[in-house]
User: Which sequence fits this backbone?
């Protein structure tokens, strides 16, 4: 097999350093529609054998929801995928340090979600060349309802 021997090109997408994410910096991600296949694959893979997620009549008729209900863990996972897919931490993200997660409303099969990300804290670490960036991530559906909120803290590379 032939090996690449030329000058390595710059990446097309480079994430922002912690210095490039000051308090107040905000963006929104692309959108994604949650499908029936997404729900079935997630609950099967993760063992979410709750009738609210597996039985359409249980969610709608018995529990009174407006449709096929999706677990908050699925919505959180998609939100992280949309955030990472934005490229904001491509090559600069070093560690996910954790976050509280609040489910504020239901997400149904067929809903389209996007994430509105706002930096609420950005500071250097005691070890140079990196910082901690905390954001408020609001997951918003097609009706502009915030269905999930989480505030992740991440270790992010610096300029140096």
Assistant:
């Amino acid at each position: 097999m032939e090996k690449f021997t030329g000058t390595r090109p710059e990446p097309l997408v480079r994430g922002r350093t912690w210095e490039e994410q000051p308090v107040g910096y905000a963006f929104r991600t692309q959108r994604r529609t949650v499908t029936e296949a997404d729900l079935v694959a997630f609950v099967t893979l993760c063992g979410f054998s709750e009738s609210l997620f597996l039985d359409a009549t249980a969610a709608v008729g018995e529990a009174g929801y407006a449709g096929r209900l999706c677990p908050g863990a699925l919505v959180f996972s998609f939100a992280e995928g949309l955030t990472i897919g934005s490229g904001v931490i491509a090559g600069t993200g070093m560690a996910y340090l954790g976050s509280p997660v609040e489910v504020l409303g239901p997400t149904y099969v067929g809903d389209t979600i996007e994430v509105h990300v706002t930096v609420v804290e950005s500071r250097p670490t005691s070890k140079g060349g990196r910082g901690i960036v905390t954001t408020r991530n609001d997951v918003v559906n097609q009706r502009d309802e915030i269905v999930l909120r989480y505030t992740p803290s991440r270790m992010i590379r610096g300029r140096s």
About this structure: The first helix runs from residue 36 to 46.
